[in-house]
Amino acid sequence: MSTPAEKEKQEKQEKNLAKKVQLMRAFEGGVIVIVHTVAQALLAERCGASGLIVVGRTTYQNVKKNGKVARAPDPLQVKDVMDNVMLPAIARVSIGHEVEARVMQSSFVNGIDESELLGQADPEKFDYHKLDIPVIVCVESFDDVVQAIYAGAAALRPKVKGANGLSLETAEDTPHIVQNTVVLDTIRANIREYKKLRRDGKLKEKETKLNVPVKSIEEVMDNGIRLPFFAHGGIIHPVDAAFLMSSGYKGVIVSVQVFQCKNPEKRIRSLVLATKHYKDNDLIAKLADDHGTSEAVA
User: Fold this and answer.
1) Is 297 inside a domain boundary?
2) For a disulfide at 173, which of 26, 45, 72, 257, Cβ 3.0-4.6 Å?
3) How many domains does the chain divide into?
């Protein structure tokens, strides 16, 4: 049985997490654009983006050289972006790197994107409840979802799998539309498997494996994923954005590759429209006519 102090701590934790989740809900129905520079951030803002993810220029080779512990963007780079735009700015950090996350929090960012593309500092999730800002966590299975929620994630996105030898930018900018749908399908299939385990009286085994209480596992099983879940991975086409929204995602993270399109301003505006009005087939057809379904970069 919990002590009064433990109950008070739990209630405070839940209240703080609810605030963080609410902050991430502001991005639902919109696009978050990945940027390197102030110029890119200003363009995204002008085109109607809901927010930004600020990233550095770390390469896959550097990740290998650094023992799979890449670096978050320079705090000065993040500050420069934030000083010039009004949009909420999210900073990208390595998976499990609590210190990187705290450095970014001290830079007054609005959130953290814990990214597989920057490598893994620690295979174990740190306690996101310790941060004052929301964390987006990458997932590829129901196990990941349960662990992320229990650790205090405020939003989720699919995990992107880069190819060996490619820069992280290239890996991220390769279209991963199928990965987005596979992740959703995998999670739904996993939930069915978990429910069968419960019927067979074997759900307790998952508690030990995941280090998550059965009660927390069942809550997600029965109530669904109540966190914002954003599509992510090489998304630069309006038709893809609309498709992923119709698949069940609540918003879209747009690749930095969008700035290499022939007309990035027009493309971002179209992505914003497609994400917001994904059920409007006539509009999506018009946007597809404007940009095609295969043209990518200049």
Assistant:
1) no
2) 257
3) 1
